[in-house]
Amino acid sequence: MIQKVFKWLISPLGRVALLIAALAALSAVIWGISLTQKTPAQPIDFPHKRHVAMGIQCLYCHPGAARGPSSGLPTPTKCWGCHQQLAITKTSALLPPLVAAVENGAPLEWVPVAQVPDFVQFNHRPHIASGLNCENCHGDVAKMNVYENPQVLNMGWCLDCHREKSAGNPELEKKLLDCATCHY
Ligand code: HEC
Ligand code: HEC
Ligand code: HEC
Ligand code: HEC
Ligand code: HEC
Prior knowledge:
Layout: H1 2-10, H2 12-37, H3 48-53, H4 58-61, H5 76-83, H6 88-91, H7 96-104, H8 124-129, H9 134-138, H10 155-166, H11 170-177, H12 179-182
The structure holds heme C (HEC) (5 copies).
């Protein structure tokens, strides 16, 4: 029996079948990896573009960014401040989850997209204090609908900018490139 299978596998048809199986396995792996990179489904497709175009500041909805480690996301109550008065809230197909969250006093379960692992210490405050804009790291959010990271937020990305910003300043170089600055 095993010999029969083996003979079939090395026959031309068997080889084609093997190739197809290998390609299928490979594409399954690639698909799996792409899932971890893709923007996840959010409870509401929140259109950044349209809100920023109205002149609402990033810090109105993400006030923590200037103050500390975490920017924070707006609560349903904050959305409701505007949306309870808007006709679009009743007619929009996107907004029933907001109405339900307000009625039930429940949060909206936004899926984090801009995120580094727990063993990395990131703090917004020193970055904003040094004059960086949200756009330097998050891309042109004013043009986005659902938020997507413009790049992978990995160690090489942090270090590239830290190297660039500290070039020629040994003290800053030591601080910004030291492992303990980001891992402790
Ligand atoms: C400062 C007022 C304001 C705040 C705060 C606000 N919105 Fe809006 N939102 C609007 C206005 C005005 C529109 C309609 C804009 C347009 O027609 O382009 C809108 C449109 C939307 C739409 C598009 C609806 C559709 O069907 O086209 C969604 C979804 C939405 N808002 C969700 C939210 C969520 C979720 C929050 C809280 C995180 C929020 N908004 C906070 C004013 C606000
Ligand atoms: C009206 C409120 C509002 C305004 C104004 C707003 N955002 Fe947001 N932002 C949200 C909400 C709600 C989410 C969560 C939904 C999502 O990730 O798509 C979010 C998500 C994000 C995220 C991803 C968060 C995560 O958990 O991964 C980033 C980064 C971000 N916003 C940056 C910005 C920047 C930069 C601006 C200004 C150009 C801005 N936002 C303006 C409401 C707002
Ligand atoms: C130097 C790069 C950098 C700049 C500048 C920056 N961010 Fe971030 N942002 C990050 C990183 C990295 C994370 C992931 C942090 C984590 O997982 O702890 C993040 C996370 C976020 C999140 C996710 C939720 C949270 O609570 O942290 C929001 C919202 C956000 N940033 C908004 C902003 C806004 C608004 C500005 C401008 C005022 C801004 N960021 C400026 C790098 C930056
Ligand atoms: C676009 C440039 C840029 C990127 C990207 C960036 N940083 Fe920074 N980072 C800076 C600047 C500028 C400072 C402030 C330097 C100073 O003190 O003047 C800073 C300061 C810091 C500090 C505070 C150091 C201290 O002790 O004062 C930490 C921690 C830090 N960054 C972590 C990170 C991490 C983690 C990432 C990646 C997830 C990251 N940074 C990505 C530019 C950047
Ligand atoms: C400016 C911030 C920063 C500095 C400085 C830094 N790291 Fe990291 N490190 C990160 C971030 C962000 C990640 C998570 C993302 C990733 O895996 O690239 C990480 C991940 C890691 C990991 C896990 C790797 C993995 O593949 O999951 C190790 C190990 C590590 N760092 C070691 C170091 C060592 C050793 C140093 C000093 C030579 C150092 N780091 C300096 C930001 C930093």
